[in-house]
Write a sequence for this structure.
């Protein structure tokens, strides 16, 4: 029955996409043990090939020793890359704890159990949704990753032809991780891609906290993990059309996003914007004259601890995106990540200090995250000086954006998710198009030469980045806005006023975050 559901879903997507073709390259048999992964061909600059006549004479019917050794080295190289990628995936998964602590600390005590519950369950819900359809739609036509042993089983991409060019729209292989993709490389990719998706899924839980019904949240968790995130991720990372802007239209190397400023963070931030608009502000957030009331978070130490956990997990996020334990660029990625976070936290701290006379450590903590979001796309392509500048600008953008969203747009975002992830996700993409210095990325997306931004002689890379940012804003916002409106008809998006006033914990998730003391006005 469920197989029929998946087939029906796939056919529906084909119909929605219009006239198109399914590209399917010849794929090897799945290898669930990994025994056939890693041969002489996987040794960098290996020259071992078919035995020569001298080899044959020397070893007669035996395989030449050089080829045997190369096979062992190649197998180990792929194994190292797999372990590196998996461990980094584990780090990214731990970021879920950081999000839970940060969002709960920045919100009120009477909703602590509910906020924690959303952050915990979005992991399981998102994982199941990504397993059902999301991974296949994102990576089903990607061709895999050479650093992880290939993954050529992922060989079916639905494409349409426009202007004489093929535009990949979504993958069509890998639903439920079935027998046809029961393979060590594919499953490594699944884990790594899944934890990235889950970061996106958790971002709106902060922007919509303290008034979102758990039923509507559950529906949302499946929708974004099964459809919205995977489609945009396919266009950027799954051999989809944004990644081919370089090979098809000579726009740099196509749209690039090394570790997810747009794919992960901007998608989550734009979805959070749509959700916050539809659900409306918390009770008491705005006065009758439209000015904002402060609704302070109940546990700033918890929130700051969460931000530091996120910063730690970010090394898995960015450095892990090399997918290779032997890629020496990893050190550059890691250092750039650190420096950008420092720039973001410092500029946010100084902005608030100069404007309001006191340093705001909660804004500095979000500035730390803003710098990390901004460096996520360009971290492999820029130098350390540029990284500090990117982070510094991100911190300033955060402060300006938070005040604009609240005071001008009258949108209530308890944790600043729209500004941290949405605004700075866009800035990270643009920063890549400006500051990529031409020291990395040769042959990326099938384009010869390294990646250069506007300041290093290639304006076309900036154009590709701007196209990707524009597509994200339009696609994610429109789809998510419509989704939240329609889902409200199925399961009310907002809790009743009396429950919101009392607190969501017991009414929505049957627990109280702090049962040892009475939740009163002091703790709200």
């Amino acid at each position: 029955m469920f197989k029929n559901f998946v087939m029906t879903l796939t056919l529906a997507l084909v119909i929605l996409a219009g006239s198109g073709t399914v590209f399917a390259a010849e794929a090897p048999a799945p290898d669930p043990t990994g025994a056939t992964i890693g041969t002489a061909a996987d040794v960098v600059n290996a020259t071992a090939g078919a035995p020569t006549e001298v080899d044959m004479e020397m070893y007669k019917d035996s395989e030449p020793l050089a080829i045997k050794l190369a096979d062992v080295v190649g197998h180990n190289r792929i194994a190292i890359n797999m372990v590196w990628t998996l461990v980094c995936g584990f780090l990214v998964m731990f970021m879920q704890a950081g999000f839970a602590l940060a969002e709960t600390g920045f919100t009120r005590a009477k909703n602590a159990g509910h906020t924690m519950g959303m952050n915990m369950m979005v992991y399981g819900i998102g994982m199941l949704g990504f397993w059902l359809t999301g991974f296949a739609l994102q990576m089903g036509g990607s061709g895999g990753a050479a650093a992880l042993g290939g993954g050529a089983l992922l060989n079916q991409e639905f494409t349409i032809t426009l202007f004489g060019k093929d535009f990949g729209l979504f993958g069509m292989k890998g639903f439920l991780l079935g027998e046809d993709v029961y393979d060590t490389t594919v499953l490594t990719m699944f884990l790594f891609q899944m934890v990235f998706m889950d970061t996106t899924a958790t971002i709106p839980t902060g922007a919509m906290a303290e008034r979102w019904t758990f039923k509507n949240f559950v529906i949302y968790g499946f929708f974004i993990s099964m459809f919205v995130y995977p489609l945009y991720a396919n266009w950027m990372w799954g051999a989809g059309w944004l990644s081919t802007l370089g090979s098809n239209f000579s726009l740099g190397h196509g749209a690039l996003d090394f570790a997810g400023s747009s794919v992960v963070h901007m998608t989550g931030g734009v979805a959070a914007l749509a959700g916050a608009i539809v659900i409306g502000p918390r009770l008491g957030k705005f006065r009758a004259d439209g000015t904002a009331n402060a609704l302070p978070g109940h546990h700033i130490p918890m929130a700051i601890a969460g931000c530091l956990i996120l910063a730690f997990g970010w090394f898995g996020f960015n450095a892990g995106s090399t997918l290779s334990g032997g890629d020496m660029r990893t050190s550059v990625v890691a250092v750039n990540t650190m420096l950008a976070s420092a720039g973001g936290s410092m500029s946010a701290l100084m902005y608030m200090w100069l404007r309001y006379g006191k340093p705001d450590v909660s804004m500095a903590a979000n500035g730390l995250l803003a710098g990390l979001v901004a460096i996520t796309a360009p971290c492999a392509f820029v130098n350390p000086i540029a990284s500090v500048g990117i982070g510094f600008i991100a911190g300033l953008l955060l402060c300006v954006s938070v005040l604009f969203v609240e005071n001008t747009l009258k949108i209530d975002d308890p944790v600043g998710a729209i500004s941290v992830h949405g605004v700075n996700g866009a800035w990270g993409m643009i920063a890549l198009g400006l500051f990529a210095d031409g020291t990395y990325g040769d042959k990326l997306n099938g384009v010869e030469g390294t990646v250069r931004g506007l300041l290093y002689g290639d304006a076309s890379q900036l154009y590709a980045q701007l196209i990707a940012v524009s597509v994200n804003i339009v696609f994610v916002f429109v789809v998510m806005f419509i989704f939240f409106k329609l889902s409200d008809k199925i399961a009310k998006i907002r809790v009743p006023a009396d429950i919101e006033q009392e607190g969501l914990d017991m009414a929505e998730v049957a627990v109280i975050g702090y049962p040892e003391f009475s939740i009163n006005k002091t703790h709200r």
